[in-house]
């Protein structure tokens, strides 16, 4: 039984409300029941949500927590004044002081994604996703010159989801290349990568964790055995050291954390735009 | 020349600070220069950033705007008191009132991603990404029974990035299947989809836009011609109507907006968890 119900009410997708709300809620040991209500962009729609929130308060005997990102003034004011809830209004709290600081009125646009489908930034993101897909798992060495970063590491060290995340969220053209036993025997990174060593970034992982992940795919195989995982990882780390490729361990990191670290190390210019 | 410099200072990846900050900044017509400073988790690191912020204020003759998500009290207090800047502190503003509401102290954990790599939710997301990759562009009909949603539409209507976004952000197993001229001639959706019609969701797109996108790939081809794009789209929409498949137009929508709409329509339970 969750401790409290949380509503995310937005006039757009609600992604901003939810991301922000989750970062706040993560500070508490309580369990929350999440309810998302996107596209609430009129007073009428707000009214329906208010009734739902108040019914929840009554039923549960506890006020819900409500994160809102709604710019329609009437809808917003109704939610703030008519809800039996703890309402967290990110716009009123932060947009209004910023109007004073900047000396301009906000244009109260709806959501950060409005018209985004036409923007250059958005087009770049889509193009980066296509690039990363075409260059997943060493599928293609064509156009590697255009890659922003090339992730290298043993099979199942987290290269694919990280590449896709870099592309999707940051518009980074991220290729990825597996390091395989043949590379270790030859004692060199795949030859197609040699001209692009400066763009390579390594991922490594604890052997125990790797063996566990590989066993889910191919239970009991040599590929998944702890002994083989230890060997591959040791060889991969040795190679990355020898080739002076920066690397990190993905074992205790989410793809978001890995991506941020890579950006900071390999494309620090992307931290400023 | 941008109107103002904005710093995103965080003890984690800074994703929360930036997402939230951008939603606030989008309300203003001004141009901003973005500077990201992730992993600021000590008073020492905070000091370096404070000096950078104050140097910027001096150089530009305008106070920077600073969005912070930092839970370390000493680092946070220093930034708030020593910066010549408009500081927006999401934690102090919202976490503290919530402590009162819930009647518990927050545990001041660092970031929403801490330990996430071990959580079930995270594992589900990674598994969903693998599923969506394996079921991209009709590559495989195996395990379609496990799909949460199957996106259908003509080539280049936005299925692939939407599938990956649904997987990455929502842990949704999203397959996607192209509708091709052979399907239109036969007058039926691909036979492997027939048992799963209830899970299908269609994407359509304006013919002008589709022709433009396809021309970037294969300039001057029949595939990219406006006439052919019109034909394919008309046939695809006819098919979706006949098969009672919900659909939307991706033309003016970002993948985030498309994904939210799909979740609401096909997996409304995913709006509550």
Automatic annotation (TrEMBL), chains A, B:
Keywords: Kinase, Nucleotide-binding, Serine/threonine-protein kinase, Transferase. It comes from the Bacteria. It catalyses: [pyruvate, water dikinase] + ADP = [pyruvate, water dikinase]-phosphate + AMP + H(+); [pyruvate, water dikinase]-phosphate + phosphate + H(+) = [pyruvate, water dikinase] + diphosphate. Its EC number is 2.7.11.33, 2.7.4.28. It is an enzyme of class 2 (transferase). ADP binds at residues 153-160. The keyword Repressor does not apply. Belongs to the pyruvate, phosphate/water dikinase regulatory protein family. PSRP subfamily. Bifunctional serine/threonine kinase and phosphorylase involved in the regulation of the phosphoenolpyruvate synthase (PEPS) by catalyzing its phosphorylation/dephosphorylation. This is Putative phosphoenolpyruvate synthase regulatory protein.
């Amino acid at each position: 039984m969750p401790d409290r119900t949380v509503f995310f009410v937005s006039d757009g997708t609600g992604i901003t409300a939810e991301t922000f709300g989750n970062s706040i809620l993560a500070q508490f040991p309580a369990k929350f029941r999440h309810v998302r209500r996107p596209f609430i962009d009129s007073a009428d729609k707000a009214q329906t949500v208010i009734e739902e929130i108040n019914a929840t308060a009554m039923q549960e005997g506890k006020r819900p927590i409500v994160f809102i990102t709604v710019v329609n003034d009437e809808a917003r004011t109704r939610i703030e004044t008519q809800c039996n809830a703890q309402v967290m209004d990110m716009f009123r709290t932060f947009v209004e002081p910023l109007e004073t600081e900047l000396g301009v009125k906000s244009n109260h646009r709806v959501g950060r994604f409005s018209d985004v489908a036409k923007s250059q930034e958005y087009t770049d993101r889509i193009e980066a996703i296509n690039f990363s897909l075409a260059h997943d798992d060493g599928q293609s060495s064509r156009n590697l010159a255009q890659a922003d970063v090339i992730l290298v590491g043993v099979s199942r060290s987290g290269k694919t989801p990280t590449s896709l995340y870099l592309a999707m969220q940051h518009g980074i053209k991220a290729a990825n290349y597996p390091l395989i036993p043949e590379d270790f025997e030859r004692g060199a990174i795949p030859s197609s990568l040699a001209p692009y060593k400066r763009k390579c970034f390594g991922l490594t992982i604890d052997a125990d964790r790797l063996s566990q992940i590989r066993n889910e795919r191919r239970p009991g195989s040599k590929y998944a055995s702890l002994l083989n995982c230890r060997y591959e990882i040791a060889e991969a780390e040795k190679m990355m050291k020898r080739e002076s490729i920066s690397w990190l361990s993905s074992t205790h990191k989410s793809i978001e954390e890995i991506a941020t670290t890579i950006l900071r190390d390999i494309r620090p210019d992307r931290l400023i735009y």
